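Problem: given the chain below (232 residues), write out its structure.
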Amino acid sequence: MSSILDRTTLLLGETNLHAIEGARVAVFGLGGVGGTAAEALVRSAIGHLTLIDCDAVDPSNLNRQILFNETSIGERKTLAAQAHLSAINPQCDLTLIDEAVDASFFDHHDFTGFSYLVDAIDDIAGKMAIAQYAISHKIPFISCLGMANRLDPSKVQVALLSETENDPLAKKIRSLYRKANIDLTKVPVIWSKETPVCRGITPASLMMVPSEAGLLIDSVVISSLVKFPKEV
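Solution.
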């Protein structure tokens, strides 16, 4: 009888699969980027996933946020995500934190020993807190920048924060991080080279670009855990 791991094992080998199954990853934010990243990580056989979000599912989320559907509306995102992801891979150990990420978040949450931290939140103070914690504790992390107001998923890529351009959010973050003495060359990011096609108080978005960012995050995390040539 086949299993969810068959094709993964063929591609990566048993040793790499065991490394993935033993990994602990935290995903901060379960929206268009974080939701796709979380689902891809679960399908990729990550063994332990901590999901952090403080919102409830809104109808406006459904055009791009892969974890949710009409029956999820009004439900806490963490709980809806748990139900969705557990139905895909029940072997993945899920931990839920229904809380906003701010400067004090890491005073009462310990991520020591985690394999990777994924920042897919919009709040700049929260992003800074994640970056500072990850750098000071030497935990690998990736921070996603602005994916709204864009149409071209092929422009999404991995870089260092110091290398970004054409991103209003990145510009603001670079300035604040410099003032906080955060080394921009130590902040890996997912960003889009595409100039925003529109601007407004409410971010405009479809599924393609944020989901591309989420899949790229999965690639970055999994690549950090495996070794090639693979050992069978």
